[in-house]
């Protein structure tokens, strides 16, 4: 079955943080943060994206990878990858 590549219409440079989400809310905020649809990794390394429910993944990504995962934040702790962008459809 053929798959299609999503067309991302918006992207936000990721500032790694253990508390501040991409949309500016904090991990302890009552508001539900808006997750991205994927993450672009500019420079290879480990990355620790946080899912909307708060679970943290531990991934190793190559340069130029697009990780098709929903995330609300990339933790500074355990993230060495850089040049990352949150992508939105």
Task: Please characterize this protein's 3D structure.
It is built from no helices and 8 strands. With about 90 residues, the chain is mainly β. It has one domain. Strands 1-8-2-6 form a 4-stranded antiparallel sheet, with no helix packed on it. Strands 3-5 form a two-stranded antiparallel sheet. The model has no long low-confidence stretch (mean pLDDT about 90).
Brief digest:
Helices cover 0% and strands 26% of the residues. With 89 residues, the chain is an all-beta fold.
> Major sheet: order of its strands?
1-8-2-6
Distance between the termini: 22 Å
Total of helices: 0
Count every beta strand, where a strand is a DSSP E run of 2 or more residues.
8
Task: Profile the largest sheet.
Answer: 4 strands, antiparallel
Which features would summarize this protein structure in a list?
four-stranded antiparallel beta sheet, mainly beta, globular, 89 residues
Fold blueprint:
Blueprint: E1 10-13, E2 38-40, E3 45-47, E4 49-50, E5 59-61, E6 66-67, E7 73-74, E8 85-88
């Amino acid at each position: 079955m053929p798959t299609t590549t999503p067309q991302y219409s918006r992207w936000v440079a990721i500032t790694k943080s253990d508390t501040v989400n991409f949309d500016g809310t904090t991990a302890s905020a009552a508001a539900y943060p808006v997750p991205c649809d994927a993450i672009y990794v500019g420079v290879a390394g480990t990355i620790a994206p946080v899912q909307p429910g708060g679970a943290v993944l531990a991934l190793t990504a190559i340069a130029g990878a697009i990780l098709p995962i929903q995330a609300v934040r990339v933790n500074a702790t355990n993230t060495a990858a850089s040049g990352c962008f949150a992508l939105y459809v």
